What does this fold into?
Amino acid sequence: MKKRKIVSILLTLVMLLTLIPTMGVTAQASSYDQSPSWILIGNHNGIKKTDAEWYEMMRTFLEFQSPTYIRLATDISVDCNGDENTFKKLKDISVREKNVLDLAGHKLDITLWKSDYVINDNVFSIEKNAELNVVDSVGKGKIWGKSKVVERMFSDWVNAVNIFNVKDGGKLILNAAEATIGTGVVKRASAGAEAYVEGDIYHRQRAGDEVNYQTSGNVVTALENSTVIINGGKLEARGYQSFNSTGTSVNNCAVVKSFPNSHVVINNGEFRAMDGAYCLQIKSANPDVTIRSAKFR
It folds into this structure.
């Protein structure tokens, strides 16, 4: 009887080990719990779910009001395919506590769009008094946000997916030195293709001309009274150009967009701005931005 009880306990422990996150900590997250329980997102130890189910699980834990340590176990790719209900489930994950997201060398790919609607939405929103620390314990991890390409030129009709939206009192720390975090996608239209131009007038490109259609977005948006610390990583943003009331071309979107009273510290990293984006867009007359070392392209 005693042996049976011991065997039963051992079997229970084995089952729990397949469900409970692995133990351990990366050096990049060492300022947090020294031996956290990692919640694994992605198929592992015989546990299989769809990417959409794993993404929903990640969302649920990040929105818990308790510190959470999340580690990707596989690449995760989600696409709302234009469905509005799915779109709502994928966008705007509200981080509500001090959480760590470890990419662990994997890719998190998010595609947001709605049929017949132009969107400008976020993947992560860091709420007041919350903190998100993004690390990459393995290296070469990736977060990428994109949307459906709307074939219009020189117009505000450009879908935008922003990665991190740091709200009043929120804090974002990017510690993923070897990771790539970016947004946007480009589609090249062939010569002679029809395209929209400003004023919604059809315009056929001259023979030999080519046009880039694209989606855009900010990698980091630091709203008022927020804090952003970037210790490394390759950050890429794709923007677009529109025209103001005077007819002047204006760039939109940025790798980092800083609003008044936000506190931004850039200790390292590579910033790449493409197609009408800024590397660093400061929307304040008295910015609180410190740059110690970075590459801007």
